[in-house]
Amino acid sequence: MPRNNGNGGADGDVMLLVRATAALIPLVLLHVCLLVAGEDASEPTSIDQTRTSRFPRYRFNIRKDDIFHDTRVVPVEHQVSAFLYKGETKLFFFLNERDQSPLSLTVTPCTSSVLWSVRYRHQNDTGKLDDMRIQTGDNSSEPPLEEFRSNEMRTFSTESARPGLYVLQVSPLERETYVKLYASLEPGGPHPLRLSQGPRLRLQKRQRRKRLTVRWEPSPVDPHVMHYCLVVNTRRYYSTLCEAQGERNGVSPPEASNAAGFNFPREQAEAHKNELASKAARLNASRLGRGSGGAGGQLHEDIVVGCVGRKTSYTVSNLEHGKVYHFNLFAVNRRTNLSFPYGRTTLKYEPRSKPAGLRDGKVSTVNLRKMDGTATFKFKVGKNAENEMHLYVMSCGGAVDAELTLKGEVVIPRKIIYGYERFRVMNPARGQRYVLRVMASNSEELRRIKAVEKSSTGLTGRKCSYERDTNFWKLFPVDPHVMHYCLVVNTRRYYSTLCEAQGERNGVSPPEASNAAGFNFPREQAEAHKNELASKAARLNASRLGRGSGGAGGQLHEDIVVGCVGRKTSYTVSNLEHGKVYHFNLFAVNRRTNLSFPYGRTTLKYEPRSKPAGLRDGKVSTVNLRKMDGTATFKFKVGKNAENEMHLYVMSCGGAVDAELTLKGEVVIPRKIIYGYERFRVMNPARGQRYVLRVMASNSEELRRIKAVEVLATTRPAVKFPLPELPSEPQVHEYDSMRKCDSVTVGWVRSPDPQVARYCVFAREDKRKELETRRPNQCALDSKLKNTSDFAMMHCQDRIPEDNRSVITQTIGNLKHGRSYIVQVTVTKSRGKTLSYDLLQAQTKPVCA
């Protein structure tokens, strides 16, 4: 080829033409590559030798990224990446075979701005590309279709692309960088890039460990294949995901491939040359601080890149107070490998704990460790308050600082507290809200603090379930840190002193005589012996008269409860009896002076009442009767547009229950005992009125057997009632005359429900030879039958609409002779649940005829 030594630009043109021609040589294989690549980049595709030949089909593990690496041909709908050194220009190609079709070419730079352009070479009438002379510099013979200079994602787009070759010429401007290339034939460009705006990022601050949770909505485009990566930093926003990853980890050139082409000698020499160049570039990059690990060879851990897959939330920890954080969210399509910005926001992290409200005389406890060492309380002084306000701060572990303010003005200046401190405020501002701020003195003290308690000063009661009553009282205002409390509960009377209640409960006995009195003179020895004999006689007479230890009659009066709780201000009494009147006496005991005195008293008639549970139309409600003292109450309001029937069902999982339905105190359905399951109907229910359903355990024995109770009510039974209707006689009968040694025949009355879908018959061997109950447990019947594998036989038959038989029969075969079996027949509603007929015990003949 002629060469002009006097013109360096001509040499560059010739060399670029040679390079472009060499790059186009693989285009001859482009159609084969497209067939090999297929639609999915992650799966190998097959190539037919000849569809009519007898040769087998071959499969090649060739991926779109590998094809791009070898040919620089950008595939359709799959993002690929390439590495460029500073000052290097690379050409990439896209062959469009469609006429007047939409086309978009997207280039995404990573760590450097790039200059890139798009040029076009058309096909002639023979289908071949014209000679292409792509030149660089200002002497370009053909202007590009469009040119871009940017460090962000940019897209060249046209709605009527001509068939031919599109050439992308890319050059980095500041430093070496990776670039991402993506070609799409969608009208208007890739659908995700056409979104007008990304989702709003929701930020939720968390008190513990200075954390913050970021949440977002899933992408409306291909949400099932969309993954998400969140970039958090204090520097700036990032326009691309690879830009953030490059700034965090640095940029290193890719490893040179050891398996290029067909391993010809020229290709071996080229591969060796590329490998040496790559090693030299990485060495220079590491010396200049641009290599792997970020600038200076260090990992920039202040840039957080968290990829969470398909999740839509991410939690960031160890945020610093007062710093501004930038949040960039990127979405990555796992099918096309396209990544794009999906949302961003900024936050100045200033965690502020919400003030905890203080109620008059109630203790408030907080954990300072979970609140970054600072807790704030607010207390509103009542309009009828007295002339003094008392408060205390108690630190459980380390030292804290406390400060009281009113409208920003200091009332009690900041003071360090070791353990406990009491404050008084004279003539507090009525109707105003005081703010108490408690802070750990330092980080060392914060590690020692377990909790902080704040409170002020009588006796209150609250009724609970489980036959219990919990009593609360306020701290005694005088010496609260040395005051202990004892509560006396009984059904007899009030007690004026603590020792009176203890004496009536445990009885009174004289003290033991001391064996070490005085100086052990003979006179003192005789006096001690005389006292010891008198004490023994007194105790003997007391025990005979029933006045000794153990109360009157020598028995412990357990109906008198004396509970001493130390410094606690609550006590729970168990096993209270319904309808009885209980007396509560509270006594305070000063541990320093040993003085005990009455502190409060009250009386209560124990009548626990459970709050009615609301029923929603067509929704199942499940309760545990054991936790509700054996009684549950439900309320159901009939809508104004309800139908003419109201259907309810009660299902007991275990034992028997009683059920009753009332309306404004009048009985609608009288009390009835239910074994397992019962369905009720109310014709023409009162619209707009509230019905009350009361379910009670039949007795204490049944209550122990009941695991749960299910209740449902609806005024649209045709749509919302999930269970099939059982006949009035849900028994299963055996035909004794048809009994054989290996089979039995049973029959049952068909269900009157027209929506019944199928019947199933189950048989399992009864090894105990005795059927405990014929009523089955209807709760979760579908899952029980599905998970049980001990059935000897199972047969199901779909309901036939034209079948008008009133009784359905079924022969159960493949049974063992002389064995007892339990037969269960179930009926399933279309798009509903399953119920069971009564159980049947059947017996096969012992001998085969």
Largest sheet descriptor: 7 strands, mixed
Tell me the radius of gyration: 44 Å
Detail the poorly predicted runs.
Answer: 1-60, 132-140, 285-297, 457-468, 542-553
| DSSP summary, beta strand count | 48
* Helical stretch tally: 11
Mean pLDDT equals 76
Question: Which class best fits the helix and strand makeup?
Answer: mainly beta
Strand residue percentage? 35-45%
- From the spread of the alpha carbons, the general shape counts as flat
| Helix content estimate | 10-25%
Ends apart, CA distance between termini: 107 Å
Oligomer: single chain
SSE inventory with pairings:
Elements: H1 8-24, H2 30-37, E1 45-47, E2 58-60, H3 64-71, E3 80-84, E4 90-96, E5 101-109, E6 114-122, E7 146-150, E8 154-161, E9 164-172, E10 177-184, E11 202-206, E12 211-215, E13 226-233, H4 241-249, H5 265-287, E14 304-309, E15 313-316, E16 324-333, E17 339-348, E18 356-357, E19 364-366, E20 374-380, E21 388-406, E22 409-426, E23 433-440, H6 443-448, E24 451-455, E25 459-463, E26 469-473, E27 483-490, H7 498-506, H8 522-545, E28 561-566, E29 570-573, E30 581-590, E31 596-605, E32 613-614, E33 621-623, E34 631-637, E35 645-653, E36 657-663, E37 666-674, E38 677-683, E39 690-697, H9 700-705, E40 708-714, H10 717-720, E41 732-734, E42 744-749, E43 756-765, H11 781-787, E44 793-798, E45 807-812, E46 820-829, E47 834-836, E48 840-843
Please provide a written account of the structure:
It is a single chain. The chain is mostly beta strands and 849 residues long. Helices cover 14% and strands 39% of the residues. It contains eleven helices and 48 strands. Strands 18, 19, 20, 21, 22, 23 and 24 form a seven-stranded mixed beta sheet that branches. Strands 32-34-39-36-37 form a five-stranded mixed beta sheet. Strands 43, 44, 46, 47 and 48 form a five-stranded antiparallel beta sheet that branches. Strand 30 (581-590) and strand 31 (596-605) form a beta hairpin. The protein is flat and about 130 Å long. The protein starts with 7 loop residues before the first helix and ends in a 6-residue tail after the last strand.
